[in-house]
Every structure is written in C-alpha cells, then in structure tokens.
C-alpha cells in the first residue's frame, strides 16, 4: 500500500518515519494518540482523487486532517496501525480574491490567517475568527463548520460558504466552486459536507463570502455581577448599537485568574464576578461616541460595575489576549474536562447556575472555567479536575442539564471521537437514522474518517 502511494505522490508525499508521523498522530490537547500506517500529503485535487480511488478499492480508512487544531479529536487516526492520515497542508493556494463580488477562493490547506490577510489586502474582511486562526486550515474550518468570536454578527462558517470542491469516497470530484449568492438549481448538496468532519467527503477547496472591512472598531472590557446582568447588557447594546456588535464574550472570574497565573497578564479593571468583552465595528462615524453613551448608561443602571474602552489597537489586542489565552492557560493549569455547549440565550444564566451547582456537589474540589460566546448562546463550560475524576460521570451531569435547558452538547467543536457516545445518547433516533442513511449512501465502504461522529458502522 505504501509503495503504491509513494509511486503516486513521491517520497515527499508519504511520511512513514515515526518522528515525521508523530505530529499527525495526536490531537491538539495530546490526550488522544493514534498509530497511522502513514501520512499522505497530496499536492492537488487530482492527487486526493487518486488516493481515494485506491483507498476505496482496497478498503483503506482515510482520516482527513487540516491544521489539527480541533478540540474533539476528529482528525486523529485510531491505534490500529491500519488507518491513513491525509494531510491537506500542501494544498494551500489562494486561487482568487474578488473585492467587488466579495469572495475568496482557496484550497483546503490554506491557513485561515493567510486567507484573512489576503482579504485585508483588497480592503475586505473574512470574518471567521478563531484563537487557532494562525494554524487552522480552510478545509478544516469548513468541514467542522467552525464558529468563533464573530458568529453573533456574521454566522458560523456554514453561512459564509458559497461553493465547494469535494472528493467523494470513491474518488469522484464534485466541482461546485461557484461564487453565486443566489442558486436554487436543485439541492444545495454542499451543506452535507459542511460540518461533516470528513466523514462524508473531503473538502479540497472553498469559495467563501467576504464582508466590507470596517474602518471603525471599538473594543471594551466590562465587569458584571453575573450572567443575568451580562444578558441585560447584551440587550442594551443590541437596542442601541444594533448589528454593529461583532462579539459579545462572557468570561468567568476564574478564566481571568488562570490567564494571570499562567501568563502574568492582569485584567485592567476590578471585578470578582464575571467579565464581558465586546467588540463593535462600523464604517460610518459616531460609533465610539454611541458606544461610550451606552457604557455610561450601563454603569448608571448598575448593569455593569466597571468598564474600560481600548484607546488604541495595541490596547484592544491586549484585551483580546485575555480571552484568547484562556484555553492555553487552562491546558497549562492541569487536567480539564471540556464542554462546548449551547443553550437558548435566555437560558444561559439558569444553565450556568444549575451546572455549577451540579458539578460542585458531585465533584468536590473541581473548578469551573466557564467562558464563551454569550451573544450566540455558546459557552465553554470547562471543569478543572484531579487525575482520578470520572470524566464520563461529569459529562453526563453537565449534558443532562444542557438537554433540560433545550441545548446542544456541541456548539462549535464538533463530535469527533470525543462525543460519539454522548451524541448517540442525546440525539433523537430519527435524527441519527437519517445521518446513518447519508453516511451509507456517500461512503458505503465506511472508509472516510471511520469511527467519528456516528462511531463504527455495523
């Protein structure tokens, strides 16, 4: 098998040495480790199609991998030694940037930050923004339906995809790299592959929507007493500032403390409860004045207890660094059990209170590191625990409350291999049945990222 792939891709396109393979064999948190037979590095879509034809004929399981920055171990092979990693990292070209039609076409291996910079060079904005944007790749962003800090204003990755090129399990290439805003010619098949985590097909290129690049940006950090006060602040901001709000991040006091402990960075204001990081942007004047007026009202009405507004881009970057460093600070602090969940926005305060009470009573000594995108109902309810904590029991205590409050056990990170059992437990039978029908139809031999999302098919 390896000789066949070397003939196809050349020696540089097939990695087999343990030191070369190791970075592709584990997830970002280094908690899941696989043993791939080899790592394939195709140069173009034709290479990917040829690989899949061979894999389909020989029933070789292919695990597509982008920047490998996911938090659900969705791009990691199993430990059998028989699965093959397909890295798209060499396919990194930007094919076209259109400032008039406001689109960008890029190959799957293109780094998200590279695409953002290409858009900025022509005065446009690619609004997908993630902490891992310096290493996350476009194919992975699309295949996981990535979210990030700007979902409140611009939506998930799904809302920004206009066209896709996909290689199917048998090597068939579907070229739908269209930049049309309106296209009702039949089924919108690309939606099947967005968020499917490489289990239905391999995204090799995408056309994404761009937005006007805002000339004015205001960034502010505020202290609030609790999540209920944060939602009152969100409503006030939306009433007065409308769709200029890009991001509304709710951050617990422990999150800020972890960043201070691990990186020495302190928040520039006092507060013992919760913090809210807000970003608004516009192209017309008056934004900062309007923002300052709303902030004054929030302080007068005791919705917020303190607040600062960045006076420069450097200060804004410092405020955002607090938010962006939380995940890494948590990783440095020790073992944690992560929950990327969403609930209806009005239910956030009740969910957080119920989940904290449940964890505190059931797992003494656990510390709750809660932070996330409150503006769209997505919270990262992470729990710092000891090495002997029963993570399955902890997950069940949190996810049961997510279900009670009408939420989802995965808001933006995906299912991967981490949450396969939980998905089977919490999703209705009819939803799983149609998912399995799609899987069997598009990947009848079960060779695409086998074991992820739905587990092993019988």
Automatic annotation (TrEMBL):
One Pfam family, short name: FAD_binding_4
Cited InterPro entries: FAD-bd_oxidored_4_C, FAD-bd_PCMH, FAD-bd_PCMH-like_sf, FAD-bd_PCMH_sub1, FAD-bd_PCMH_sub2, FAD-linked_Oxase-like_C, FAD-oxidored/transferase_4, Oxid_FAD_bind_N
Listed PROSITE patterns: FAD_PCMH (PS51387)
Keyword terms: FAD, Flavoprotein
Domain FAD-binding PCMH-type: 32-213
Membership in a protein family: Belongs to the FAD-binding oxidoreductase/transferase type 4 family.
The protein's name: FAD-binding oxidoreductase
Native organism taxonomy: Bacteria, Pseudomonadati, Pseudomonadota, Alphaproteobacteria, Hyphomicrobiales
């Amino acid at each position: 098998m390896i000789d066949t792939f070397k003939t196809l891709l050349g020696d540089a396109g097939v990695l087999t040495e343990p030191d070369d393979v190791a970075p592709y064999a584990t997830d970002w948190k280094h908690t899941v480790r696989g043993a791939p037979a080899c790592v394939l590095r195709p140069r173009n879509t034709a290479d990917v199609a040829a690989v899949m034809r061979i894999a389909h004929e020989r029933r070789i399981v292919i695990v597509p991998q982008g920047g490998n920055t996911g938090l659900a171990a969705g791009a990691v092979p199993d430990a059998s030694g028989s699965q093959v990693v397909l890295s798209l990292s060499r396919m990194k070209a930007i094919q076209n940037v259109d400032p008039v039609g406001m689109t960008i076409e890029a190959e799957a291996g293109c780094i998200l930050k590279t695409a953002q910079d290409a858009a900025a060079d022509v005065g446009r904005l690619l609004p997908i923004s993630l902490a891992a944007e310096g290493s996350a790749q476009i194919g992975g962003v699309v295949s996981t339906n990535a979210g990030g800090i700007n979902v409140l204003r611009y939506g998930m990755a799904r809302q920004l995809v206009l066209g896709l090129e996909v290689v199917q399990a048998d090597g068939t290439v579907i070229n739908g790299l269209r930049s049309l805003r309106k296209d009702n010619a039949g089924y919108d098949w690309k939606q099947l592959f967005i968020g499917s985590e490489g289990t239905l097909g391999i995204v090799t290129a995408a056309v994404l929507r761009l937005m006007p690049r805002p000339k004015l940006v205001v960034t502010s950090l505020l202290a609030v007493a609790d999540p209920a006060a944060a939602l009152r602040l969100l409503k006030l901001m939306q009433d007065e500032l409308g769709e200029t709000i890009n991001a509304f991040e709710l951050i617990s006091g422990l999150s800020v403390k972890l960043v201070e402990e691990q990186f020495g960075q302190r928040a520039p204001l006092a507060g013992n409860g919760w913090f809210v990081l807000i970003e608004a942007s516009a192209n017309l004047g008056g934004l900062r004045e309007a923002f300052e007026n709303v902030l004054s009202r929030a302080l007068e009405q005791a919705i917020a207890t303190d607040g600062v507004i960045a006076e420069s881009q450097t200060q804004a970057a410092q405020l955002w660094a607090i938010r962006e460093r939380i995940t890494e600070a948590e990783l440095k602090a020790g073992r944690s059990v992560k929950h990327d969940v969403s609930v209806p926005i009005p239910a956030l305060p009740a969910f957080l209170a119920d989940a904290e009470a449940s964890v505190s009573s059931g797992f003494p000594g656990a510390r709750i590191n809660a932070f996330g995108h409150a503006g769209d109902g997505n919270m990262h309810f992470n729990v710092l625990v000891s090495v002997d904590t029963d993570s399955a029991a902890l997950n069940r205590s949190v996810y049961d409350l997510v279900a009670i409050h009408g939420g989802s056990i995965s808001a933006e990170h995906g299912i991967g291999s981490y949450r396969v059992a939980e998905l089977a437990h919490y999703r209705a039978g009819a939803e799983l049945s149609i998912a399995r029908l799609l899987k069997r139809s598009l990947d009848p031999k079960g060779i695409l990222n086998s074991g992820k999302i739905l587990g092993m098919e019988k």
